[in-house]
Amino acid sequence: MTEVERWPRIRDIGLAGKLVSFGDTLSDSANRAALAFRAAVEAERWEGIEETATTLVSVYLRYDPLRLGDDALDERLAALLDGKDWRAMPLPRGRTLWRIPAVLGGPSGPQFIEAASCAGVDAAQARRDVTEARLRVLTVGFAPGQPYIGELPERWNIARMTRLNPQVPGGSLVVSIRQLIIFSGPTPTGWRHIGKTAFDCFRPEAERPFPLSSGDEVTFREVTGEELDYIRATDLSGNGGATREKMK
Amino acid sequence: MIRALHVVRCGPGVTVQDMGRAGRLDDGLSEGGAADRLALSEGAALLGQPVEVAALELAGTDAMLRAIADIRIALTGAPSQARIDGEPITFNTSYLLKNGQTLILGYAVRGNYSYLHVGGGFDTPPLLGSRSTHLAARIGGPVRPDSLLPVAEDPGDRIGLTLDVRERYGGGVLRVVPSFQTEQFDAGMLARLSETRFTRHSHGNRMGVKLAFEGAPLNARQQLDILSESIVPGDVQIVGEGEPFVLLGECQTTGGYPRIGTVIPPDITLIAQARPGDPIQFRFVDRAEAMIAYRDYRGLLSALPRAVRPYVRDPHDIPDLLAYQLVGGAVTGKEEESHGGVEDDGFGRP
What we know:
Number of domains of chain B: 2
Structural class of chain A: alpha+beta
Number of helices of chain B: 4
Oligomer: heterodimer
Number of domains of chain A: 2
Number of strands of chain B: 22
CATH class of the largest domain in chain A: Mainly Beta
């Protein structure tokens, strides 16, 4: 079967969950499909659906199996999927474009050079790859507000390390498999630590506790360590000097 | 008037918990909430209040608390030695902790998570719709010794009620339904999951519990190359070393380790309350069987408020019957007698 024939698939996740997946590898079109299909499911407002969320290539639905039968939900999902090319759907409206200051390399990004060499480029090209790309928040997950941002050029399809970084601070920028993450909090990781931001992904007390949403677009602006220190001292919003702009 | 509990002393692992923050997976925040949801519902039933009310969760620790105002209390979950001003009290029973009285909770005798419920509930500030501390997300934090926990006004007044609770300590058989990644494991691995006698590993917390076993590692066909996908509490994740890890409410929202199946909601309390060394087994069940168990469980939860009954002591347990006041669904009043003197009957009634 071809990739397009095997997907989408509707599968169970636990007793009270469904996963509608548009692939088993990340692609721009599968990610678009997941974002669009979640919006469509939300718009249906089916009784018994308690929550929906997107991952890189799937939509997760949590439901109450005593109110909405398993088979009935499968049928509804299949009917909603049918007849539309979800991979070709436009991205949702009302997204935000973020421009986020980041320090690359040096003590703030001790594995920047190593990551660049894994990608087969020199430091200057690596800087351009990270800062010139218009990237997308592919999904928010694992930890509160934590974005998976991509996709970088194909050469950045570098594997996770088998030996973990024991602890990387919150706000760190890490890279692997054509994606960047800004860490929500301090965490051990198998991703390479290439930089730092002053962007706070999760602000429990703020009006917008989770500033980033799946589908938002992101560019990185390189700053020096001193500039980031200044930003950190003067921008108390949690944005770490980032600017935001509503996309039409 | 101030209503509060003064936490005079406590070890680490004491947090305020309610039913958690379901509904924020798209923002990367897992639901969290009480590790033993059933215990939370039992406490709410004993005090005749909604299940959303916040309680204190004690994870493998002891505590000493003093009442500031008369406060109804009930203890549920992992049973421990508990005393009000030195007099033993019983789990799964409601009492009045009078202004100035001291409640001492010992280390749990069985299980991991004990709960202290108060009439009106703890009135700590809610955040994102819940008072639950979410340690992994750094929402709130452990209760510190010598802190004051505000208690909301209590619309209820009944005490001296008890509840027969479901036995859930010492491990057991966890029913598992297949999940979307079960197909990543071959038949031999699935058989081994069912046949292996696991024990709860010493490594475990509110995010998840590791299982120990003897024999070759359990592995998926492609252990390393799996795209990160949604996680639900109860998922049995096989980590890099081939060991199963049962995920609980405070787990991460997505993960790249393959999951062999999902423990059904009624059995999550068994793994949450299992102690290091307790035996654990898995049994795959089909969806029909799982739904029967789930329906029963939901029925049990909704029947709890009607299942409370007056606490009546077995006369054989009471050395001098005349010295005690027998309370039967008593109502607290200004003239109410202390319910001290009710002696320990072995804790953790089934």
